[in-house]
Amino acid sequence: MKPIIHSNTFQYIVRKLDCLRDSKMKKTMKTLIIVLISSGVMSSCSKKFLTSVPQDQLSDGTFWKTQNDADLALTGLYSNWESWTRLGWMDMMSDLSYSHFATPFQVMGNGQMNASSPGKNFFSYFQINKYNNFLQKIEGVDMDPAKKEVYKAEARFLRAYEYFIKTECYGDVPLVTKTFDDPSKAKIAANPKADVVAFILSELDTIAPILPVQTMRQSNGHATSGAALTLKAKLELYEGMFPQAMADAKKVMDMGIYQLYPDFRGLFLIDNEAANNESVMEIEFLTNTYPNEIWLDVLPQSEGGYGVIDAVQNMVNNYEMANGKTIDDPTSGYDPNQPFKNRDPRMDMSVRHAGTFFNNSYFDPFTPTSPDYHGNANSNASGLNVLKFAKVVSSDLSGNGGQNFMVLRYADVLLMYAEAAIEAGQITPDVYAAIDAVRQRAGMPKTDQTVYNNQTKLRELVRRERGAELVFEGWRYFDDKRWDIGPQVLNGPLYGSWLGTMNDQTGVITLDGTQILLENRVFHPERKYLLPIPQSELDANPNIKQNPGY
Fold it and tell me: Which segments within 70-150 are labelled E, that is strand?
């Protein structure tokens, strides 16, 4: 097909003014103000607000005394423990997503990132220091000892999660488990990744029996035993510890409290959060108080969004036909002239393509006069818009959303269990049952065991399932990394939709043989899939060494 290069001169503008928004939150929640400051939550961008808070409320002489103090401080720990614009955007680095804004993730995905590239600093130890401070200060609080251990276990989970993200992004990182009066003078060298991984696994193993066996709904957003074991299984899978990952995922399955939500599309909508027992751990948001921009980021221009996250052709190609056959199977019924027909239902529930009927109109990225034309500055550049998470809302809510974002969910547990068992060579009926539970929930047929009857074929299947099920949820780049498929999927041209014409009354498309060329990517194997340590961090701490390839 003849490529059409999409040109966009707009640079990424950081629209999520987290510091300002947190200030608004703090002005409306006085008790949380005390918590956030005493727990070390406020960053430098909020210092001007400190002048409005009576400092005598925050001294260790009056705080960190009672269980109520501990309750407030614990609540503060969950502020910014993870964010939509970190994990939710991370798939832009992968083979299944893209952004027409020059986000840090987009620049990482195309191989252009360096130590001075602008963007979020995942190397910062602000969150780690907050968790360490809590663990240190709560020891002096007069409260029930058993409850104190649970509170500490929650803090240790959040710290373990942050170290998990850090070591996956950077490899070797400093392992800090105590606070410093002046962190800038600590100048701590990085620990080997293996040591950090061992610490994370030990922490999760210790706290899993302490944390309650509850769903997210029952715990009201607090970390649980299931969350600790799920994170542990994920790290073990990433580290090639397949029997251990299999065992820990099975522990979560055997809890009997998590269920796949029956409607894949509805799973990601705010309307169904109260009935969602598939979520194992999620970021909680609240309109006007602690909002996010999920809807603004995924909605197309015609619905007031920016379409920040683009799907790509690789993602569409990953989906099977509705009959369970891949599109390269000559018996599948795939028609390249009608590539969106008769596909895995998750495709139409995850991506809005030409001809998708939603909100009383057909999505049209083909026609220059359409508000969703792929060449518009604020339109989705690939012609493939994200439908997962999307909800039509009023303009005052599009950037002020209260929809939660799932970080860990039960479908991932099932797929991790299946993959770990496959890699461990333990292919049993339980493996097929785990995969089929995910497939059938989406309306796909059970696995054809005459085709997928060995490790190689099952490996292909479970990897394809992860792409179909978990796309846009932030884990794909780490999958690319651990499968070491970067040279194949993160190198060379990246394509968006085929092009053509569309009947705006029927949604029928006619392709013309051209395709959107989004960019040409360069994969750097010497970087070993790691991000560059920000130059500001290197300048502040000469004991930190830059990752290879930068």
Answer: 97-98
In this predicted model, what pLDDT tens digit does every residue of 336-353 receive, in sequence order?
Answer: 999 999 999 999 999 999
Contact yes or no for 427/455 (Cβ under 8 A): yes
List, as own/partner pairs, every contact residues 271-275 make where C-beta atoms lie below 8 angstroms and the sequence separation is at least 24, other chains included.
271/391, 273/403, 273/404, 274/217
Q: What is the enclosing helix (H) or strand (E) of 493?
A: strand 492-502
The alpha helices in 327-368, defined as continuous H runs, are: 345-350
Could you tell me if residue 498 is left (phi over 0), alpha (psi between -120 and 50 degrees) or otherwise beta?
A: beta
**Matching residue, tokens 């035993």:** 225
Q: How many CA atoms lie within 13 A of 445 on its CB side?
A: 12
Residue type, 174: P
The dihedral over CA atoms of 157, 162, 163, 165, expressed in degrees to the nearest 10, equals 130
CA triple 26-125-176, angle to 5 deg: 130
pLDDT at 536 over 60: yes
Q: Is 368 exposed, middle or buried (0-12, 13-18, 19+ CB in 10 A)?
A: exposed
Percent of the chain exceeding pLDDT 70 equals: 88
Give, for 502, the enclosing helix (H) or strand (E): strand 492-502
- DSSP 8-state assignment for residue 331: T
Side chain identity, residue 471? V
Window from 31-45, 157-171, 234-248, 382-396 with minimum mean pLDDT: 31-45
Residue 307 has pLDDT above 70, yes or no: yes
pLDDT tens figures, 175-188 = 999 987 665 567 89
Q: Is the pLDDT of residue 26 over 90?
A: no
Identify residue 123 by its one-letter amino acid code.
Answer: F
Whole-Å CA distances, 547 to 93, 190, 196, 528, 529? 17, 11, 16, 9, 10
62: tokens are 């009056």
Q: How many residues does the structure list for the chain?
A: 550
In whole angstroms, what is the distance from residue 262 CA to residue 299 CA?
24
Crossing angle (nearest 10°) for helices 67-77 and 145-170: 20
CA–CA separation, 258 and 227 (whole Å): 11
Instruction: Enumerate the H helices of 319-394 as residue ranges.
Output: 345-350
What the block records as the tokens of 160 is: 């373990």
* Spatial separation of the C-alpha atoms in residues 79 and 32, rounded to whole Å: 10
Nearest to 125 by CA among 76, 85, 173, 75: 173
Over range 29-39, report the average pLDDT.
Answer: 36
Residues 6+ apart with CB under 8 A from 341: 335
Q: Which of 444, 480, 449 is nearest to 319 (CA)?
A: 444
CB of 78 closer than 8 Å to CB of 221: yes
